[in-house]
Every structure is written in C-alpha cells, then in structure tokens.
Write a structure and sequence with these properties.
TIM Barrel; 14% strand; 14 strands; alpha/beta; binds zinc ion; binds fe (iii) ion; globular; two-stranded antiparallel sheet
Length: 306
C-alpha cells in the first residue's frame, strides 16, 4: 500500500484559527493541509488562541493527521530579494521571524516561502539579498524549517531554476533549516519538462539533493512549458494533464512528501459570481486514480445543494 499524504490550501479562520483549517481539510477528505496565518496578500496577523490550537491538535490526532506534514505558507508579498528600501527589507526579516514563532506556537514544522523578486537589481544581487535575509531570519540552529518554493519566473522572480535555489542554500549558514517546495505548475511554467518526472527528479538530485524536497504543490497549469506565467489550473484541465500529475503524486521517491493542491476555486455559473473550492472532488479523483470528465459540473452540483 502506497501511503498518500495529500491536502490543499485551506483557511486559518478568524474565529477558530487552525481548528478551522483542520475542519476544512477533513471536509475534503485530506490527511494534511496548508494555510496562511492570515491573509496571503498582507502581513496583518492576529493573536493565536491556545485553546483552539489544542483542540485543533486533538482533532488532527483523532483523524490521523500528522502535524509534521502540515504546512504554513508565508504571505507572498514578503520579498527578501529587494533591499532598495532598508525599512521594507528589515520589515520582511522581522515578519518572517515572527512567522517562525507563530509556527512554533502552533506546532508546525514547515513554512513555504517564495524566495523573492529582484525588481531590477539583477539575479546575482537578488540572490545575495535573499541569502542575507535568510541568515538573519534563521539565526538559530533549531526551529521550524523554511521550504523555498520553485517559482515560475514571472517578472523578476528568483528560484525559477534549481541552480538559483542551490545558490541560496549554499549561502545560508543553518542549512538544516532549509528545504525546497516543488510546485508542478511553476516547474512547467519555468521551462522544466514534467512529463518525465523521474528524469527531472534526477536533475534535482544532482543539483540540490532529493532528500531536500520538503513539500510539493500539485497544480495543473493554464500555460505551456516555459510561459513564465504562473496561472494554476484545476487537476486534469490544464497543460500538464491528469495522468502526468498522478505519476508525480504516486512517485515512489516522493512517498513521504506532503502534496498540497492550490488549484483555482470554481464559480457556479462559470462567470464572476461566488466561487467554491474544488479540493473535495479533485482529491476523490486523485484517490481513485481516475479522471473525472465532469469535475467542474460535479463541484457546481455539490455546492448548489449545500
Ligand atoms: Fe506559493
Ligand atoms: Fe505553489
Ligand atoms: Zn503559483
């Protein structure tokens, strides 16, 4: 039996915090999940409720969710690559230090971070800034791990190649606190051929080391290989396709790695009305290893009823 560790992006709720996240994950049939400790696009963060956190941990235990597989995603506006404005850079460093403390309070071991965008400073300077920032953030030998996410290379994003990620890791003193988060959509959009994933894993192993994979984001892509766009698509409906994603999800070398879906919400009408999470139906499809050609319709029907 192949153990499958699968979950999706869920919310850290205003009232219940991580307890809300666990409940949401369970409602989709997941055994792990990923959340932002507040809004993804800002750095406003509330206090963490100890009772609710304990309740969350109990609920996880009861449902065989290993807290070591649960992931926090740092807000994507944090940019360690840009030091043009010293105050902003320092703010990013301090925010991440706080975020690591929040993770510790919650009992979470892994935080996914976008390496950053060099905003015109150039690749080398951007990478050096990220290294500087990470050394300030990870100034202690112990604590939660930062998983650097492989990026699509949109705009001036860094971390679009394994070599750039390797350069960052090499520059950081407390390397044991760094892992990598692969994102299937980003890999494709960055120009990697995901159709032969074993070959790609070999390449990753040669540059960084396969034991450094701490998390995988499973997303289809709206765009062709090398498009540098970063637009996620629902599982099976994009350019990667269901079969390729299934091969990655069930790859023997990645058995122990948590897989997280970040696919787009689906609107009931197909227009710009309220949208609903696709994860329950996508995860069903993944567990069955069988493509559901009525995926979008099934999602719409499910939420119409409720
Ligand atoms: Fe991300
Ligand atoms: Fe991602
Ligand atoms: Zn993305």
């Amino acid at each position: 039996m192949n153990k499958l560790i699968i979950g999706s992006h869920v919310s850290f709720t205003k009232d219940e915090g991580m307890l809300g996240s666990v409940k949401e994950a369970l409602s989709y049939g997941e055994n792990t999940f990923m959340f932002y400790t507040g809004a993804p696009q800002n750095t406003i963060r509330g206090k963490i409720d100890e009772n609710k956190t304990n309740e969350a941990k109990e609920l996880m235990k009861k449902n065989n969710i290993d807290i070591n597989d649960v992931i926090i995603h740092a807000p994507y506006i944090v940019n360690l690559a840009n030091n043009k404005d010293e105050d902003k850079f320092n703010f990013a460093v301090n925010f991440l230090k706080q975020e690591l403390k929040r993770a510790e309070t919650l009992g979470i071991k892994k935080i996914v971070l976008h390496p950053g965008s060099h905003v015109g400073l150039g690749v080398d300077e951007g990478l050096q800034n990220i290294i500087k920032g990470l050394n300030l953030v990870l100034d202690e030998k112990e604590g939660p791990i930062i998983c650097l996410e492989t990026m699509a290379g949109k705009g001036t994003e860094l971390g679009k190649t394994f070599e750039e990620i390797k350069t960052i890791i090499d520059g950081v003193n407390n390397k044991e606190r760094l892992l990598v988060c692969l994102d299937t959509c980003h890999l494709n959009d960055a120009g990697y051929d995901i159709s032969n994933f074993d070959k790609l894993l070999n390449e990753f192993d040669n540059v960084i080391g396969i034991d450094k994979i701490g998390c995988i984001h499973i997303n289809d892509s709206k765009n062709e290989k090398g498009a540098h766009k970063d637009r996620h698509e629902n599982i099976g409906l994009g350019t990667l396709g269901f079969e390729k994603l299934i091969e990655i999800i069930y790859n023997d070398k990645l058995k122990e790695v948590p897989k997280i879906l970040e696919t787009p919400y689906v609107s009931i009408s197909g227009g710009k009305d309220r949208t609903f999470p696709p994860y329950k139906q996508e995860i069903e499809m993944i567990k069955n290893k069988k493509y559901n050609p009525n995926l979008l319709q099934d999602i719409r029907n499910y939420y119409k009823k409720s």
